[in-house]
Amino acid sequence: MAYRRHRPSRNWGARVHEITWAGLDALVLENELLRVTVLAGKGGDIAEFCFKPRDMDFVWLSPDGLRNPRDVAGGGADDTAVFLDSYEGGWQEVLPNGGAPSDYRGAAFAQHGEVAGLPWDADIVADGADEVAVRLTVRARRMPLRLAKTLRLRAGEAELVVEEELANESGVGLDVMWGHHIVFGAPFLRPGHRIRLPGGARVVPHETAIARGGRRVAAGGPYRWPRVPGAGGGEVDLDVVPGHGAPSEIVYLTGLDEGRYEVVDPDGGLGLRVRWDATVLPHLWLWQESGATTGHPWWGRAYVMGLEPFAGYPTDGLAAAAGNGTALRLDAHSTRSLWVRAGVIDGEGT
Length: 350
Description:
The protein has helices spanning 81-84, 318-324; strands spanning 15-21, 24-30, 34-39, 45-51, 56-57, 91-94, 102-104, 107-109, 121-128, 131-139, 145-154, 159-168, 174-176, 178-184, 194-196, 202-205, 223-224, 227-229, 235-237, 249-254, 260-264, 270-276, 283-289, 304-311, 328-330, 335-346.
């Protein structure tokens, strides 16, 4: 990480701090309303998104906390656990493989491989009381990809702006899965919270249940959002966050009129609004783990929900997404840009 050892100190307006967390380089972007911690040493993860007036962190942190990926567990080799062993929750960048381990054109990828497990270079590119910004860059190791993202926070605004550039540095066309693995949990998420989406969404269930406890949504589809056939009959309201112990589930939302969703507490109106360029990431993965998985990796301790803008589905990996035509196609020596914004909703009508 590029440190600014003689950077002027400031404790008002927008500011940025360089810290170490669990032995990993990290940057903290902060203003009067938000504190956002970004792990340069691990995937460029956003491990904190705290709304300061309510001391409310929207991202979930796992019971095991943050672990340095170099601190490898003593168990056997496992291409799924390589992600989960150092998964702290939060918000990850996923590229070029989404979900399960997969082989693509001779390259073998682990779960959510590969940039989520790599250290990123970081530099502070704006440092004023009115605005701060940091730029993170990484090169994948098994595909000729370079990804750069700038995270920007302005004074007085409860919104983080992310601007990205993905480059294919080779002379051959490539398929990639590209996504933002955004996960909500305690202290924010509770049963009864509402998911708001723009019109046009269709629900495509994952082909099989993801846990032994069965599933909530009937196989088949696509169905119209939000009321879908239940696996045991009747209907399931997918726009209402289920209670503790509900079956684990993952579905894919397609056909969105725009890239936008909101997760809101109906009692007080506090929530988070995420917007993005849906021409680049046209799908939205909805993952819910409400405590039904009593074996590895959750052991009944997770009550979480992921709402993840993505290019490509299902979670069976890049080969499957390339095969069904949902992966993002990068032409030779081409670059794709993306923007994502995450802002706090503080009360109804905000």
